[in-house]
Amino acid sequence: MSLKQSEGGNEPNSNSNSKEMNGVNDTQNQIQNFCLLRTPSMGVDDVCNQPEYQKSASSSSETTRSGSSAQLQYVKAANDVRKINKGLRNAKIDLEVKNLMIVTKLNDLFLIYLTRELVEWLLRNFPSLNVYVEETLKDDPKFNAEGIYKDARCIENRIFYWTPQFVKEHDLFFDMVITMGGDGTVLYVSTIFQQSVPPVLSFALGSLGFLTNFKFENFKEDLPGILNHKIKSNLRMRLQCSVYSNKKIKISKDVVVDDSSVTSVPEDLQSCHTDPSLYISSVHHVLNEITIDRGPGPFLTNLEIYGDEFFMTNAQGDGLIVATPTGSTAYSLSAGGSLVCPTVNAIALTPICPHTLSFRPIILPDSVCLKIKVSSKSRGSAWASFDGKSRIELRPGDYVKISCSSFSFPTVDSTDEQFIRSISRTLNWNVREQQKSFTNLLSSKNKKNFVKEEKAKKEFDSTDQSFSSSEVDVRNVKETP
Questions:
Q1: Which residues of 329-353 are buried (b: 16+ CB within 10 A; e: fewer)?
Q2: Three-state secondary structure string covering 89-139
Q3: Which of 16, 61, 255, 414 can pair with 391 through a Cys bridge, CB separation 3.0 to 4.6 Å?
Q4: d(Cα 2, Cα 57) in Å, to the nearest integer?
């Protein structure tokens, strides 16, 4: 709807209604333009439901003058957003992979040899592809890059090496990431890519594998279809965690911290909060969860929980877990949290051994901004960890702001049912033993009689069912005019 249409009414509230409607239409245009810019190869009709927008824009002037027009436009915009979200989930993107990054679990010798086999196959079958492996493998005789060149008959040097610092400075350089390991290897990729993340394809080479849905034994069949054709990508939600403290950051000695896991904060952002005595000491983007617990202290944590600056509750216990849908199958699940499908954008708040039994886990919308503050009345410090890394001490008065990150974590989908299959495979979700037959306990005489009775019962049930269906058909014939 144009601005002139909104101003055409003569009602007393036409100005306020026009402002509201223009705000809704601006939101629609922003969403539409976003989809067009981010998915130019998918077509407007597939992703943005262009006919719906045209229908909304061509509404009559009489409708726009009505008092409920703003609410009507609001409902239409919400419905369009749902359709756009569904379209994005089903959309396929065309990858143009030139720089491929491989992340391997290096403390497993077997995986190093599997990485060598994968690199050799890639060099032989994709002549224009540059492969990047971790710099640790550069002088490793087990990897032996020169031997790979010889075996693959590759003349050019197309094996390069990456470091966490290189990834931090060139996060848009890589077109795709392949992980060789388990879920921990995938979390490591999220740690080193703290902002933009390329699509991640994970081979199941770990123990559980909620995030690893591709089998390495099928890589020669799967990779050509992924590298040469369009793929479906699951944009997994991440959490942005901003730590506000009045002291310099302190890292626990028992945790090895990678510098790339801490995002530097611009000076102008450090003053964007109400308490002038605190500043943002670090910002983290987590794929699984942020955990705030009592650490080595003997006292219960005393945490104040705010949602959009509204005081929700005071949590006393061993701590809190704030998890993404991806992280709902990790620590949160062990603490009694609910399973959440990764395509649902939500925030799971799960207490760890709360002091009150009524403090149950809760699922919050992804639009909420949580603030978890160590109470000034707390008898000790709390400790925050981000995807199990970068353990930071929070003193009384310090707090963490948690919101949905603008940098999602895209993973290559193997099947549409991969989440249900993963929880069924790893958790034996809703698996129970069927009722066993005890005919083996019967004597031969009673067993013969039992089989005869069972057969007669089945014949009677089938006859009764056929009679019921024929009776229904006769009734339908009689009712037909």
A1: bbbbbebebeebebbebbbbbbbbe
A2: HHCEEECCCCEEEEEECCCCHHHHHHHHHHHHHHHHHCCCCEEEEEHHHCC
A3: 255
A4: 8
Exposure string (b/e) for 24-55, b if CB count within 10 Å is 16 or more?
bbebbeebbeebeeebeebeeeebbbeebbee
* Closest CA relative to residue 200, chosen from 221, 228, 181: 181
Which amino acid is located at 36 in the chain?
L
d(CA 307, CA 395): 21
* Cα separation values, 17 from 3, 69, 200, 277, Å: 11, 8, 45, 42
Contact criterion met (CB below 8 Å) for 240 and 405: yes
Which residue in 206, 230, 227, 225 sits closest to 216, CA to CA?
Answer: 206
Model confidence, pTM: 0.74
Residue 286: CB atoms within 10 A of its CB come to: 30
Residues recognised as catalytic: 183
Q: How far apart are CA 186 and CA 426, in angstroms?
A: 17
Burial string for 80-103 (b: 16+ CB within 10 Å, else e) reads beeebeebbeebebebebebbbbb
CB contact at 8 A, 148 and 120: yes
CA 417 vs CA 186, 212, 342, 357, 422: distances in Å: 20, 13, 11, 35, 9
Residue 402 burial by Cβ neighbours in a 10 Å radius (0-12, 13-18, 19+): buried
Query: Taking the alpha carbons of 445, 450, 456, 458 in that order, is the dihedral positive or negative?
Result: negative
Closest by Cα among 86, 90, 146 to 119: 146
Residue-wise pLDDT tens for the chain (481 aa)?
333 333 334 444 445 445 444 544 554 555 555 444 444 444 434 444 444 444 444 444 444 445 578 888 888 888 888 888 888 878 888 888 999 999 999 888 899 999 999 999 999 999 889 999 999 999 889 998 899 998 888 888 899 999 999 999 988 999 999 999 999 999 999 999 999 999 999 999 988 788 888 999 999 999 998 998 888 888 999 999 999 987 654 444 433 333 444 454 444 344 344 465 678 889 999 999 999 999 998 999 999 999 998 999 999 999 999 999 999 999 999 999 999 998 899 999 999 999 998 999 999 999 999 999 999 999 999 999 999 988 999 999 999 999 999 999 999 988 777 788 888 888 888 888 777 777 778 788 888 888 888 888 888 877 766 656 655 454 554 555 5
The kind and range of the H/E element at 82 are helix 69-90
Q: Sign of the CA dihedral 278, 279, 285, 286? A: negative
